[in-house]
Amino acid sequence: MVASLLNVLLLGWVCVVTSHDDHHHGSVDIDLDAEPVNALRNSEFIRNADHISEHLKDQIKFDPNKATPQELDFHFFKSHDFNSDNWLDGLELYFALDHVYLATGDSIQTDGRVSEGERHSSLQRLKQHIADTVDKILEDDDLNNDGYLSYYEFVESRNQRQDIDV
C-alpha cells in the first residue's frame, strides 16, 4: 500500500516538475537523515508572500504586504487545493512541499564532484523525505483520519504552529 502510494507520488512529482512554471521560493536546508517535521506549522513556509503571489498572479489582484496572516494562510490553502474540493489530500500536500524543496534538489551538485548515481540517490532520498513529511502532516493534523485536511483542520494546525524549521 505504502509502496504504491509512493509510486503514485513519484509519478505525480515528475508530472508537476515538468509542467510547473520554473519558479522556486527559496532553497531550504533539509536534513534527509532527520525525522520529518510538520511544515504546515512553519509560518515562514506557509506565509511566504512570493510563493503565494506567484500562485495568485493570474487569478486576483493581490498585495501580500496588505494581507493579514490569516489571509496568507487562506491563500496558501486555496492555492494548493488543485481540484477545488476544499480539502488538501496527500498529493496536494506533496506538491506544496515539492516545489519549495525542489530548489534543494536542483542544488545537488552536478559539476563532477557528485556522480550522477549519487545525485539520483540524493533525489530519491529527497522525494522519500517529502513523502514522509506528508505522512507526518496527516498524522498530526488529519483530526478525523479521513486522509484529507479540511480548511478547519488546516487552521487548527496553524493554531498549533511551533514555527519550526522546514
From TrEMBL:
<keyword id="KW-0732">Signal</keyword>
<dbReference type="InterPro" id="IPR052110">
    <property type="entry name" value="MCFD2-like"/>
</dbReference>
<protein>
    <recommendedName>
        <fullName>Multiple coagulation factor deficiency protein 2</fullName>
    </recommendedName>
</protein>
<keyword id="KW-0106">Calcium</keyword>
<keyword id="KW-0677">Repeat</keyword>
<dbReference type="InterPro" id="IPR011992">
    <property type="entry name" value="EF-hand-dom_pair"/>
</dbReference>
<feature type="signal peptide">
    <location>
        <begin position="1"/>
        <end position="19"/>
    </location>
</feature>
<dbReference type="InterPro" id="IPR018247">
    <property type="entry name" value="EF_Hand_1_Ca_BS"/>
</dbReference>
